[in-house]
Write a structure and sequence with these properties.
Trna Endonuclease, Chain: A, domain 1, 4 domains, 5-stranded mixed sheet, 29% helix, disordered C terminus
Length: 455
Amino acid sequence: MRVLWERLDPDTIERMSAVLLSLNNPDVQRIDGRGGDGGRDAQFRRADAGVDFYEIKSFADRIDSRRGRRSQVERSLAQPAKRSPRSWTLVVPVDPTDDEEAWFDRLRSRYDFPLAWWGLTWLDGQLAEHPEVSRYYVADERNAVLDLLRESDALGAAAADIGAALGRLDVLKARVRLLDPHLVLELTTLPLVEAVTACAGAVMYAQRPTAIGPVTIAVMPRYPGAARDSDVPKMTVALRFPDTGEGRAAVAVWEGIHAWGEPGEMTPQVVEVTEHSAPGGLGGLVGPATLTFTKRTPGPGSSTGRLVCRRGDRRVASLPVALDHLGAGEVGVSFAGHDTTGTLTFHGRFGPPKVMFSMSCTPPAGVLPVSVLPALRLAEEARLGAELDIVLDPGGEDSPVRNHAHADGRDPVAVPAVCGEPRFAAGPHADALRSASVGNADGGRGRRSVGEGPA
């Protein structure tokens, strides 16, 4: 089908364009934001190769000066230009005229990185390669992703033989691929636990009875972040917290999940019912259930950083760290990580105007004392009252750290925390560490504290 871009609303143009960009970059997470002057921008951060910026505009006729559209494009380019991008591309449903091409060439001459114009020809070509995008967004067949495939509730159950059952499974996979640009189905006869490992990264799993036995259906994203673009799967959960010790403990866990994006688990005593939708009729109502929220692994550019102790303007200790978790909730950011030796672990929450931070030190077995000294020096400086900064590479303007840290987009982000005495636990080198005069590696008191302070 041919898409008449001029008849589409701006939001649909921007969403379709963003999905097409992701389908062209299936191995890279797309980071969305708002353009410098309207429209939407998309970033693809590549490990050790810089960032490609795309500015999506919904102008479906001309980019002229009379309506200020050229000025809008120039303002949208100005902000990413400050970050030394690998490239910048204008995505707009119109091909340039000679006059527009001359203006864009003058714009190119101002910058030392490549600028490109991907117009109507590029967009129509991409839709020819991915017709499911126009089916989903323009022909409005998104409901068919659910309704047309309701027979998956009885996948192969009525099939006379194994061949017929397998045929129905193949039809189901093909239909979902034709209808949904975001998700695909993977089918396996492996037991559910093994299927989860074999189909790692699925947004949901379901089992259906067939003539060949139970089949596990994994709903897989076609590109990183695809579930965010899709209307399915979606889940509605009803929670009830009883006025008991267990109920009050569950409230605290839920606060961490919802407000801070922390991992946690809601038990059947709290989860009354869940209703979820998914491709192929895989959704429905589920009674009391367990909901598990796992750690959110940081993406490229956000998985490493440093803990830095300062006294005034003087840096007194610094330690490279890796993040195990970096999540964002309604209130702020949660994070957890460790140093390279595994001696120091930390976790915290950051939601302006306050920071909550905790660390502990446990020298692992088999590690030489000299290798854990930097971690213990930093912990001791923090215990003695030095200011502690967590300095991260925020991984783009829409990373959870940047969103909750600095609106002005400073890079890197420094999160100051007022830290009390860290906990020191017994380890195989406790005596050696004490004799090295690093700090209170006493192994006996197991002290721990959480500090709060202004961000």
